[in-house]
Structure formats: structure tokens, C-alpha cells
Amino acid sequence: MHIRDGILGPEVCLVAGAISLGAIGYSLRRLRLDLEDRAVPLTGMLAALVFAGQMVNFPLLGLPVSGHLLGGVLAAVMLGPWAGCLAIAMVLIVQALLFSDGGLLSLGANILNMGVVGAWGGYAVYATVRRLLGNGAAATVSAAVISAWLSVLAAATLFCIEFLCSSHSAGFDSRGVLSLMVLYHAFIGVGEALITGAVLAFVLARRPDLIPTPQPAGPIRTVGGFAATGLVAALAIAAILSPFKSEFPDGLDAVSEQLGFATLETERPPLVLEDYAVPAPEVAWWPGLSVSVAGILGTLVVFAGAIGLAGVTRRHAAPVVVVDGGHGR
Amino acid sequence: MVVSDSGASPQSICHALPAGIRLSLTIITILIAGLIPLEHWPAQGLLLALVFVGLSLAGVTMRYLFRRLGLFLPLLLVFGLSVPVTHSDHAAWNWMISLWLRCTVSFMAGLWLIHVLPFRELLTTLRRWRCPLVLVAMLGFMYRYTFILWDELRRLRNARAARDFGGGPWWRSWSINSQMIGLLLLRAMERAERTHRAMLARGWDGSVRFLDGDG
User: Fold this and answer.
1) CA-CA distances (angstroms) from residue B42 to A209, B24, B49?
2) Radius of gyration of chain A (CA)
3) Nearest alpha-carbon partner for B48 in B93, B116, B104
4) For residues A9 and A168, is the Cβ–Cβ distance under 8 A?
5) Chain A residues closer than 8 Å to B117 by CB
6) Complex confidence, ipTM
7) Candidate from A44, A199, A262 with C-beta closest to B142
8) Nearest-CA residue of chain A relative to B142?
9) Structural domains in chain A plus CATH codes
10) Interface size, chain A vs chain B, as Cβ–Cβ contacts under 8 Å
11) Tens digit of pLDDT per residue, chain A (329 long)?
12) Is residue A261 classed exposed, middle or buried when 0-12, 13-18 and 19+ CB atoms within 10 A define those classes?
């Protein structure tokens, strides 16, 4: 998930870095912390926890690779969007500067994709779903599961946008990159959603007071919250619905795909960026279809997981109304 | 995972540079590597040689370098190879070689930085660069707590290894792993609360003081 240096163009890295700096500054301003506030060590501790939690490997069905927690939504649910964003940003800073995991120049892009979109956008979705479902333990877990899945998809989509905006990526088929990334991350997102949900279910069963209730007139009402919700929703909808649009190639398109897709690619001047930023109508039908199938499958699995986890929490946890543990200000 | 934060005292000529210069040098190197046009990829080789000189000056052993590159290169090679496989023209090969060199230069520059910039010096530099003090304090706490939580995680893993002999379907290990993170979360939050109260009781006002006075 961590973007290495050299993948994105430096200009994109600098712009993403500027946006991330702004987001960190805004988060700090919203928190209005004094140095001796307890939120300071608490945020540091949660960042360390996300970092340590990423060391726990989850086996992937007989494959030689394993996945791990990303933690954006988990941090936002525990600490709120502003401190959650700071916690993820710090995890990424330490990983880049201490372990060379993720690039230095692309640190801004990583913070933007995982910290800002993961924590702000994820929290906006979480708060909205919770407001719809209520304050029960099952509602909390379902909301976190849904927002964790969406946050991974949004991060993948944002990476595609950043990659296609870079000067290095001229010559890449934008639909191909997007569908491949979204396809993979639909599955990675299911893993992230399941882990986030299971961890929260565990915490809710033991210390429900640690998870604050989203404030009714809280961050979601502000412009930033609305923008983040809109962004995440739009990205997710675009990621899921865009393949459907391309599922109906007319006869001419289908023929041109079979006969001349490759030549069409090579005939294009490789330096014209604008050609690739605007999605071309000619696209191989199969990645679109696979993306749709992945989207549907992923949604089904996530919802099944949410319902299952909700059932488990209902059995194990006392049906308490989650009270604010003093985390909200 | 290798913790490379051992250099508390200057060990090499690279450590003697001011911390801000070390940080800026690395970022400029990565920036140059990103700005070299695709068709001029041999220039990346020159940059790679420069970074390599820097690494040897900093006293990075070849063994460490190869181990890190061994973890890093396979993914990069596969990612780069996917381009000429899908686009069969000359530019694709240029793109692949340029990507390989660009990413390797950046990665090795990053390795140089983590080797010559201890975390405490980074915090001091950030403070000097007018980074908000709250953020510096949070970073400091995070760094400190990371090692504590790793110990905690090791204890949890030991306890699990002593009682659990593996086996079972995959969701069982997923569920156990998630519960382990959940338990770690609970212990971490409780520990943060306790530590904070203890710090307040001892007169914590938010400023970290070092004995050698560089804070």
C-alpha cells in the first residue's frame, strides 16, 4: 500500500505533500491541543499501536503472501477524524524515516491516500452510517466495516489518479490501471474491513466506553466533513459504476478492440498527457466486467461480514448504549 | 524488521553534517532522480553511483544493503516488467529501466538517511524548523511507545504460541490475530492513561528536557 519514491512524478508528490501539510495543519487546529493534554500521549500511543498492529500478519488462504491491518478507520473510530489523521500521518512518517518503508518524497501522497482520505473520509462514512443505524454495538461495527472497505477503495482510486497525473505514466491505459488497482483493492479492502470490524467488536465487548459516539453536530456537519464524504462516496461510486458504463461497447468498438487496440496504443504520441486523463471509450471489456464482479462480490462479502460480526457482537456484548468516554471535546 | 536507530553519536563523515543538510540532501537526490527524463536513464546510473559512495562513506555494510535490496527489488522488478509485457515498443523498455533505476536510487537515498539521521535528531530538526510542538511531542511519544508495544506484542505472541498449536480453518487465525490486536489496543490505551497521569503527577508541562541540553 505504501507508494515508493519514483513511482509518482515529483510534481504530483509536491502537490500531494502540500495538500497533506494543509490537512495536518487543519487537524491540529481543530484539535486545539495544549501540550499537556492527554490526547497528546494517547494519539502517540494509538499511532504506535497501528504500527505494531501492522506487524501481525494475516495468512491469505494458502498463498505465500500475507496481509496486515492498515488502520486508518480504526484510528479515526477510536480518536475521531482529526487525531486519527495525525496518528496515521505519524505512522507513515516513522515508517518512511526509520524503516525506509514508503518513499520520502511520496510521503505526502501516502499521507493523503491513507491518512487524510482514510481517517477523514472513513470517519465521515462511519459517522453517517452510525447516524442511520443507531448507537448499538452492531451498528458501530457495521459502520466501521463499511467505511474501512470504502477507505481502501478510495485510497486505491486516489493512487490511480495521482499515478495518471504524473508525467512518468504517459503511455499507460488509464482504464487498465484503474480497473486492476480497484480489482485488487476490492479484495484487500475486504480483509481490512474484517480486521477492523473484529478488533472493534473485541474492544466493544470489553471497554465500550473507549469508543466515542460521533457528535450529532460534530465534524460531519462542517465543510471538510461534507467534502470528505462526497469525495469518498464519489470515488467509490466511480470505482464501482465506471466499468458498467464500458460494458456496452457498440459493434464498431468491439471490432476496433479486436483488430486494432494494440496499434491504436502505439500510434498515440507518448507525451500527450491529456489523452490519457480523459477516459477513452475503447476499452477491453473484460477488466470492466471483472471489476464489476469484484465490486459486487466485495460488497456482498463485506455486508455478509458486517451482518455476521454484528451477530457475534450482539451475542457477546452487553447491548449498551455507547457513551462518550471523554474523548470528544 | 531491523531497528537502525543506533547512531546516537557521530560515527562517520556523513553524521558530522548538520541534520537539516542531511535531510535536504536526501530529498534533493530523490527529486533529481524523479526529474531526469525517461530517455536519459543513463544519468540515473551516475546518481546511483553517487548515492552508493554516500552509503559507503556512512559506513553501511554491504550485507545490510543487500538484505534491504533483496526485500525491495523483487516487487519492483515485477512491476517494471509488467510494462514491456503489455506494451511491446521501444519506449516501454526505456520506461522500465528508468523506473528500476529511479526507484532504486530513491530507495538507497532513503536508506542513507535512516542510517545517518537518528530519530532524536530528526525531532530536534523538526522543532528547529518550527514544526508545531504538539506534533513533535506526539512523534516522540509514538517512537517511545512503539518499542513498548512491540515488547507487549512479543509477549502476546509467546503466550499464544504456548497455548495454540496452529491448525484450524483460516478464519480462526484471523479471529485470533484480530483479538490480539484488540487486546493490544486495550492495553495500549490503558497504559497511555496511566502514563499520562503519572507524568502530570511529576510536573509534566509538555516540554521534553534532555540531559545534554540539546532539546
Assistant:
1) 59, 24, 11
2) 21
3) B104
4) yes
5) 97
6) 0.86
7) A44
8) A44
9) 10-316 (1.10.1760.20)
10) 230
11) 688 888 888 889 999 999 999 999 999 988 887 777 888 889 999 999 999 988 888 877 666 667 788 889 999 999 999 999 999 999 999 988 888 888 888 999 999 999 999 999 999 999 999 988 888 889 999 999 999 999 999 999 999 999 888 877 766 777 877 888 888 888 889 989 999 999 999 999 998 888 888 875 444 445 455 555 566 555 555 554 444 444 444 444 444 444 444 333 333 333 333 333 333 333 344 444 455 445 555 555 555 555 555 555 545 544 444 444 445 44
12) middle
H, E, C per residue of B73-101: HHHHHHHHHHHHHHCCCHHHHHHHHHHHH
Report which secondary-structure segment, H or E, holds A67. Answer: strand A66-67
- Calpha distance A36→B76 (Å, rounded): 44
Nearest to A79 by CA among A107, A37, A111: A37
User: Do A134 and A213 contact (CB within 8 A), yes or no?
Assistant: no
Q: Which residues contact B56 (CB under 8 A, 6 or more apart)?
A: none
Asked if B144 and A47 touch (Cβ cutoff 8 Å), the reply is: no
Q: How far is CA B105 from the centre of its chain?
A: 16
Indicate the residue of A38, A51, A194 with minimum beta-carbon distance to B174: A194
Residues of B in contact with A194 (CB under 8 A): 174, 178
Cell numbers describing residue A186 = 476490492
| CB-based contact B107:A100 (threshold 8 Å) | yes
User: What gap in Å lies between CA A250 and CA A283, rounded to an integer?
Assistant: 11
Question: Domain boundaries in chain B?
Answer: 19-117, 131-201
Q: Which three cell numbers stand for residue A231?
A: 469525495
Position of cell 486523463? A277
Please say whether the beta carbons of B102 and B29 come within 8 A. Answer: no
Q: Min CA distance, A292 vs chain B (Å)?
A: 22
- The Cα–Cα gap between A242 and A174 comes to 12
Q: Which three cell numbers stand for residue B144?
A: 517511545
Place of cell 518513499: A103
Query: Which residue reads 548538520 in cell numbers?
Result: B18
- Would you state the cell numbers that stand for residue B56, as one nine-digit string? 559507503
Enter the C-alpha cell of residue A133: 443505524
Specify which residues A59 forms β-bridges with.
A66
